[in-house]
Amino acid sequence: MKCPGQDSRYWKPGAIFDARCPKCDAEVEFFKDDTTRRCRSCGHQFLNPSMDFGCASYCQYAEQCIGNLPPELIAQKQDLLKDRVAVEMKRYFKNDFRRIAHATRVARYAEQIGRREGGNLGIILTAAYLHDIGIKEAERKYDSTAARYQEEEGPPVAREILTSLGAGEEMIEEVCDIVAHHHHPRAEENVNFKSLYDADRLVNMEEDLKEKPLSEEKMKGIIEKSFLTGSGIQIARELFFPKQENNRGKI
Predict the structure, then answer these.
(1) How far apart are CA 29 and CA 214, in angstroms?
(2) Could you tell me if 113 and 160 are in contact, meaning their C-beta atoms sit under 8 angstroms apart?
(3) Contact 105, 149 (CB under 8 A)
(4) Which helix (H) or strand (E) element contains residue 135?
(5) DSSP label at 11?
(6) CB 44 within 8 Å of CB 25
(7) SS3 of 47, please?
(8) What are the pLDDT digits (tens) for 140-187?
(9) How far apart are the first and last CA of the chain?
(10) Exposed (0-12), middle (13-18) or buried (19+): which is 158, by Cβ within 10 Å?
């Protein structure tokens, strides 16, 4: 059975229309069920400006329904998914409010760093919410929260959550890879990993300093050596030495 909305016999006036190419301003003919069209004048492919992609941005069957998703929609889908991941993270940790708060603070810093560094915020924030998701299994199996056990147990849990939410395989692979070594950066890392790593470092430093304060000299040394992004270093300076950063800004 064909969906009436896709059957041209039921189309109303306006179902076939012209839209201006955003690159060269040439007219491009669209049918209402076209997801994209390529401009014959300049070759630019762009989204149907009259189509509502709202459901496709989160539905796991979107590609089956409308075909290959355009890059803009993939980015939107990843961005919307992060909020649902946050909910699932809270459900998973239940009343473990300390770990929920930790993940939430990491996500807040990760968003700041990722935005400044030009990373994929959908990937970065999803990884931020799930980076310690293996800690419960680590405690259950090994009676330990050691980093290596978290990294070992985290990816299967993260994959299960992301699969249930309809995340794409490419996104799942990258997030699980980040979770699998989030305490141990490799020689070469992309901006998504670096943003998460620095955000986690910031929150861990905040938590550690409450237990064991360090001298200003030691703190500055740690900040200069421990972070992977310039934005992470800058936020750390602003966070731990706000007066100095304010004075520097006035010079």
Answers:
(1) 65
(2) no
(3) no
(4) helix 135-142
(5) P
(6) no
(7) strand
(8) 999 999 999 999 999 999 999 999 988 888 899 999 999 999 999 999
(9) 71
(10) buried
Residue 7 contacts residue 16 (beta carbons within 8 Å):
no
Q: Which one-letter amino acid corresponds to residue 91? A: R
What are the tokens at 67? 């075909």
CA distances from 127 to 84, 175, 227 (A): 13, 5, 17
pTM of the predicted structure, to 2 decimals: 0.71
Read off the tokens for 188.
Answer: 């070469």
What is the C-alpha separation between 147 and 180, in angstroms, rounded? 10
Residues in CB range of 180: below 8 A, 6 or more apart? 151, 152, 154, 155
Asked if 81 contacts 58 with a C-beta cutoff of 8 angstroms, the reply is yes
pLDDT digits (tens, 9 = 90+) for 71-82: 655 555 566 688
What share of residues in the chain are helix, strand, coil (percent, to 5)? 65, 5, 30
As given in the structure block, the two tokens for residue 157 are: 């849990």
